[in-house]
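Usage

Read records sequentially. Each one opens with the input sequence:
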Amino acid sequence: MRSTDLEHMERAIAVARANLGKTVPNPCVGCVIVADGEVIAQAATAPGGRPHAEEQALQAAGERARGATAYVTLEPCGARSSGGLSCSERLLAAGVARVVVAAEDASPYASGQGAERLRAAGVPVEIGLLAEEAAAALGYAG
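and closes with the structure output:
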């Protein structure tokens, strides 16, 4: 773990806090995308729960997401209830090189699926950075 990882995850938690309580039925997730040490995009789950944080941040980052690191407060979804592309699929399609996750997600649409998909494609996934802080600040159930 690098000290910059902590800084970026703290930022992702702060970004998520801005929409806390507005994203029901989905949890409020924060995503920060970093390339070459620079934050190139950030987003929180939108009011009403859609679009997800990763989806918005990746759209804002565009091609700069290729080779970047994504810091996400909750494990990226592995499936979407709407049938659209999951966040893990979107991260892969964007060419993100590394994903750092605060807390695991017990949801049937995540629960290890997103992390497994990313790892199977060769993307390193680190889970647990500031997990307790994210859970406390954002109300995640472990």
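Summary fields computed downstream for this record:
- Residues 3-17 form the longest helix (15 residues).
- The chain has a mean pLDDT of 92.
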